[in-house]
Specification:
By secondary structure, the chain is α+β, with helices and mostly antiparallel strands. It has helices at about 45-60, 115-120, 130-140; strands at about 10-15, 15, 20-30, 30-35, 40, 60-75, 85-100, 110-115. It has a single domain (about 10-150), classed as Nucleoside Triphosphate Pyrophosphohydrolase. This is Phosphatase NudJ.
């Protein structure tokens, strides 16, 4: 029997304000790393909703996606264990809203920080994946696709039957 390959689907928010990009510093098995606010698509949610949730969980800020930056595929081999993971990332840009007062950051998130494009480039060795910089570079280059390019069928929200 052939085993079906299943990449991990993730979402990421590329948020720029006044020439600086919002990143999170997080604990990973490889040590402290920088990442865009990002995470996995959960059962019962669409990519846009997942991105809104992940930004709130990791930064305590409300986020409204306005455009899709792109769909990215990358492979990661964990040095310590040899685990081999392929990620399919949907990256969004949008408007950062108000912070939710008193909200704790997700487990593993140490802090949020705002870096210029030059600072992001200079910190490449600390990035969680090569997609951190690639998504920011695409944002800086003006890449935008309409959110309507993503369709989530109502069956995603239906109870298992």
């Amino acid at each position: 029997m052939r085993i079906r390959w299943k990449p991990s689907v993730t979402v990421a928010a590329i948020i720029e304000r006044d020439g600086r990009y919002l990143l999170v510093e997080e604990h990973t098995p490889e040590g402290l790393r920088l990442n865009n606010p990002a995470g996995h698509l959960d059962p019962g949610e669409g990519p846009v909703q997942a991105c809104v949730r992940e930004v709130l969980e990791e930064t305590a800020y409300r986020f409204t996606p306005t455009a899709l930056l792109g769909v990215y595929l990358s492979r990661f081999q964990r040095p310590a264990t040899g685990e081999d993971i392929t990620y399919l990332r949907l990256a969004f840009t949008g408007t950062l809203g108000e912070a939710e007062p008193g909200r704790a950051l997700d487990e593993g998130i140490v802090r949020t920080l705002w870096l210029t494009l030059e600072e992001v480039r200079a910190s490449r060795a600390r990035h969680r994946s090569p997609l951190v910089l690639r998504c920011i570079e695409d944002h800086a280059a003006g890449r935008r696709l309409p959110l309507e390019a993503i369709y989530t069928d109502a069956s995603v929200w239906a109870a298992p039957g």
